[in-house]
Amino acid sequence: MWLAEGAPEGISLFLPPLDELVQSIIYIGIVAVVVWKYAVPRYLKTLDERAYVIEGGIKRSQEAEEEIARVRAGLEGEKEAARMEAAKVREEARADANAIVAEAKSKASEEARRIQESAQRQITSERQSAEVALRKDVGALATQLAEKIVGESLKDQDLSSRVIDRFLNELEAETAAGKRA
Amino acid sequence: MTLKGASLGAMLASGEGEGGMHMPTLDELYPAPFWKIGDWFEFNRLDMIRVIAIAAVLLLLYLGARRTALVPGRGQSTFELAMGFVHKQICEAAMSPQMARRYLPFIATIFFTVLGLNITGVLPGFNVSSNALVAVPLIFAVCAWVAFVAQGIKSHGLGHYLAENLFPKGAPKVMYILLTPIEFLSTFILRPVTLTVRLMANMIAGHFLLTAFFVMTSYLMIEGGGLLKGLGLVTGAVSFIFVLFEIFIACLQAFIFAILTSVYIGLAAEEH
Description:
The structure holds 2 protein chains of 2 kinds.
Chain A: H1 18-153, H2 157-180
Helix pairs in contact in A: 1-2
Chain B: H1 8-16, E1 35-37, E2 41-43, H2 45-65, H3 74-94, H4 97-119, H5 135-156, H6 158-166, H7 176-223, H8 227-269
Helix pairs in contact in B: 2-3, 2-4, 3-4, 3-8, 4-8, 5-6, 5-7, 5-8, 7-8
């Protein structure tokens, strides 16, 4: 054990001896310099750097969020525009389709009328040519008949004349009826 | 004023009249020097403990602050935790953030030095804190006094600062006869005195408490018979609890010294 030197009495308990004071001041001074020049600056430097990095990170993430919000809003707008565009296209297509159908219908009825008219015309002309041909044949037949009649009964002048007249009258009547028909 | 006479252990020892149990006295805090230079410089056991504690504090500060990585390792984290505690819980608790940064080296010096010197009180082999001697507490108390007075003069000017502290606003003029001496005493005298005595007395008391229990335990276990050995087990268990308690006290006193200094400086700077 260390031998006790004896404690100071009274107030001198609170008055440090000079050697102790000097030692303590030197030690505290050394610690103070190390803390002041080394430990605290390094601590604060790290703290500030870290705060800077964290603030930067927060700022970057905020910017990214804003960017996302902006893009999302843009997309929403574009979607709406596309929807409207589609509706417009559909509307136009429907109108076009209606127009095309109407046009086709009118074209078809026109065609039909045209075909009908030309058929009518053909029928008319064929009938006329048939009438002409018939008239020619009727003439020839009449002549043949006349020759026969002339050959057989030319002796009876009055009879032959009556026959010819009646024939021609009938022919006339027939022609008129055919023309009316 | 005889703290010596208050040594319960000594009284107990003499009361039992066995002489085999040496209860701690104040004398133990003033051991004979083993190294002398001239007439005035002496180096004893407590001086040695102080040097070792200071060296340990310096080493830990160096190890902690050696790296300044953004993503800290274990040592750096511990250092930042400790320094951050002083910064946020002690400095910023009492001052503006700008002032806290400015005073951090001062307050951190107080906190780490006092803590380092206190903790030797519970380290086996040392078992005494050199803060049980007046020198270091007194030096820090004087520094704290200088710091808060200087801050007050800097913030308000000498006249205004003294007027604010010695003549509190709102009191009737007659009351200043009573108030001014009280304010002067409490602000400029008692603050450093209480800082010094609080720390020193806590370390003395801690040393006595632990030593008393250790001595009692060993005495009862070795020399006591039968039931007394059982009592020795109890005092042993209690001494273990008191070791934990003294670790807490060592940290608490460092914290109190640092935060009071910080509060005094903060108050001096405050606008009224």
